[in-house]
Amino acid sequence: MIIAAVGDVHSPKFLPLFLKSLGEVPVNIDAFILLGDIVEKNNVEAFAPVYQAIRKRFENVPVIGVFGNEEYRGFEREYYAKYPEISWLNDELRVFGLNRFKTCIVGTRGALDKPTPWQASNIPGILEYYRDLPGKIAGLLRECRDSAAEITILASHYGISYSNLKGEKPSIYPYLASQRMSEVVKPELVDLVIHAHAHNAVVEYTVVNNVPIYNASLPGRGRILVIEVKPRRSILNWLAKPR
Questions:
Q1: Domain that holds residue 128
Q2: 84, 103, 104, 186: least CB-packed within 10 angstroms?
Q3: What digits encode the pLDDT tens for the residues 118-154?
C-alpha cells in the first residue's frame, strides 16, 4: 500500500511548494493524508486550493485529514461543513479498504509535553487534555487491533518523540512533541506513525519501539512524502502466535 502524507502547508504561505510537489507524487497512491496546519491562522477558505489540487490529480483517492494548531479548536465544524469529502479524524479512528488491505487510521492533533504559553492562557483544560490523550490514543489503537485491521497508521500533527527533532532548538522540544505519546507506539498496535509540526527538523525517518516514524512537514522535507506501508504488525502478531 502506498500513501502520500504532508503537513504544514500553511496555505497560502507554502502553497506554491505544495503544488509543485504534488506533481511529483506518483498517481498510483492508495490514500492522501493531510497532517494539519494546512492553512495559516485558521483561514478556512485557504484549504480549498489544497484540496482542489489533490482532487484534480487523484480523482478517486481517499483524502484523510487531521487538524493542526493553525486549524483552531472550536472551528472543526466549519471544516467539516465546507470540506465534507475529506475523512476528518479528530481523536478518532476509521477503517478503510486501501488497496487490498483493511486499514485502520487513528487521527489526532496530538499532544505536547508543555502547552505553549498562548495555549495555557487561552485553551481551558489543555494541560489535562495533553496529559490524558496518550491513554485515549492507546485505546483507539487497541480498537484497531481488535477490528482485525491488517495495517494500522497513527496520523498526528504534533510529534510523538524527541528522537527526530534534531535541527530544532532543544529548548522548544516540549512544544513540538510528546514523549509520553511514544509510550503508546508499540509494534503490536501500530505499523506506521506520521506527523508534521517540526518545520526545522532534519531527520525525516526514525524508529521508536520498532515502529517507523516519519516527519512529513512540508517546509522541513521540501516535498510530499510517499511511503510504502507494509503490514508489519500483522506479521509480528502471526510470528508471536504459538505453533
A1: 2-240
A2: 84
A3: 999 999 999 999 999 999 999 999 999 999 999 999 9
Number of separate domains in the chain: 1
Q: What's the CA gap between 11 and 149, in Å, rounded?
A: 34
pLDDT digits (tens, 9 = 90+) for 70-104: 999 999 999 999 999 999 999 999 999 999 999 99
Alpha helices in 58-169 (DSSP H): 76-82, 117-122, 126-146
Q: What's the rounded Cα separation, in Å, for the pair 191 and 232?
A: 6
Residues 23, 117: Cα–Cα separation, whole Å: 38
148 contact partners, CB below 8 Å, separation of at least 6:
102
Q: Shortest CA distance to 53 belongs to which of 94, 98, 97, 4?
A: 4
CATH code at position 36: 3.60.21.10
- The whole-angstrom separation of Cα 220 and Cα 121 is 29
| % pLDDT > 90, the chain | 93
Residue 218's H or E segment, with its range, is helix 218-221
Measured distance CA(38)–CA(133) in Å, rounded: 22
